[in-house]
Design brief:
mainly alpha; globular; disordered N terminus; Sodium:proton antiporter; sodium
Length: 461
Amino acid sequence: MLLATMSSAFASSSAPLIPQDLTALPLSWVAVGIFVIAYTLVILEDVIHLRKSKPVIVAAGIIWVIVAIAYAGIGQTEQVDAFLGHNMLEYAYLLLFLLVAMTYINTMEERGVFDALRGWLISKGFTLRGIFWITGVLAFVISPLADNLTTALLMAAVVISVAGGRAAILADETTKKFAVLACVNIVVAANAGGAFSPFGDITTLMVWQAGKVSFGGFIGLLPSALVNWLIPAIIMSFFLPNGKPEPKKEETRLKYGAFVVVGLFIFTIFLAVSYHNFFHLPPMLGMMTGLGLLQLYGHHLKNSEKSAVDDNRVGRFDIYNQLQRSEWDTLMFFYGVILCVGGLGALGYLAQVSGLLYGVLGASTANVLVGVLSAIVDNIPVMFAVLSMNPDLSHGQWLLVTLTAGVGGSLLSVGSAAGVALMGQARGIYTFMSHLKWAWAVALGYVASIYVHMYIYDLTF
């Protein structure tokens, strides 16, 4: 019975999913209204102190009931299961990928890696301005290899540690201003760096898998991606507070096995890239394999006499404690967003918007607006809608929509996986409103990067 159910699920997921245009139904309008209300509550998280995952999870449940009723009305109830299965698979890939990245970061933090890095940065005499640029450069350089989400989490952990921890940041306005600017810079740099690599972002991966741009073709986005990050980074650097991080009073040292954990994390990223590149398997599978390796090494840490010396102060090492410390509000938020947007897509809204853009406004204008739309909704379903519509675009235009979908999410904190993940990791520091204050600077970089790309590929509006 179980095998039969699984077989039918895989069969339905392999069939082409073409949403019906049900946007004229009053119930569909209700679904849009529910999504708008839920997203408004997400935006107001700082004001009403309601975790961002709660409204979107409730909205997702209601929207899919509306989808089920709408499709039952036209006698196509089997399509609902296919659409829902597709969206759940997309979420499962993202959930497991994120869970591994967060667990590794938590473990490196527990082993003292970030405290040691903080001590090294301070000992080298780097100012807050210097650390701002170092983390930005590293985010831009690492994200094409690791991916923008993992890179953003890693660099933000460094910033928070350098600034003295979350409690110290919230207690001091000057330190908080630095942390906010550094986090905004990291999000922009990670998204920009991820735009010129198939492995840098989920949207670039989708474009590459669809055969619209070759593996090496993405390097053509490097100049515009660099401009996209540098312009807001230079602007924000003028508003950075002066000073240097305060040194910790207690001695900073690495715990036993810290370097091995860092090595395993690098190897896990290599596995994620290799699984996709050589075996055409989801990157998530490589990440989960890496998590298994960390669990095996965690068993060694738990029973090692050398590790016991380090762990006596806080209890023996347990890998499941690091799993539990993952930012579950962020992980559940992704569930809600993917399901909400997927439900609206099943009702025909994404296809309708894409058709309006490319059918009426023209390729260049449409591709620019795709980036703006991805900041509000999410770049993954937006790019999925564009690829499903398969407009007749030149190589330069496919690169343009890849650029805008990738970096457009930097306009708002909820527009990219990197931004949403940082909202969870730096809760109370990096928020929707704190990012919004610098959206004008990010927008200048967005516009400039588009003009650079259009100049290189001789495109016009």
